[in-house]
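Input/output pair, single chain:
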Amino acid sequence: MKTGGLHKLSLIDYPGKISAVVFTQGCNFRCPYCHNPGLVYPHLFSSPVPEHDILSFLSRRQGLIDGVVITGGEPLLQPGLEDFIRRVRDMGFSVKLDTNASNPARLEGLLKAGLIDYVAVDYKAPLRMYHMAAGTAVDTGDIVRSVTAVTGSGIPYEVRTTLFSGLGSDDITEMAEELHMMKAENYFLQAFRPYADCGEDLAPREINLGRLYETLCGFSSYGIRNITKEEQCHYVCYR
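Output:
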């Protein structure tokens, strides 16, 4: 498995657990607001972190952390993913997977094998404009199949959308309606914030919290993350 990085301790990436975060190299999407271009574009890749080094580190953290988050890039592109997860679980860690939902067959295999304890699915845009948010052609049938597999799996999960300039309030409403059709119950929004290599033009339009929460309140758990204090920072509501 090609691993581009390891974050040794996180209190926020795995809900309710202390975790380490493993970043895989490579992605089949080219989202314009991507925060990890060094894991997406091959010409930006650094030397992979040897898998042995990651497993050795994790073996020394048994009893000190609860879980391992596997993110990217897109982890489901990695041919050695299943074996890596099994080795991590054999150490007693639970596993959270972050995915862009483009590979439903691989995702369904992991779920059926009981290898995943929590899934975070990125839902980029309304299906009709998915290609715009993903930066490439997308089979939206794969997205629907993946989300449906996760919502029907019986394991903890969340669906999440990054708010950026390409999405308006009407788009979020449309996405919520689509997710209800896929039996999603847990939906979170996260505001894109500009950083050094990604400009202000991608920042979300003015956030209308009232309308967004009105859209989200049909879900069992929901929230808006990564907004400023003035925008009511990190407000999360559970019905």
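Residues 1-99 form a domain with the TIM Barrel fold (CATH 3.20.20.70). The chain is about 30% helix and 20% strand.
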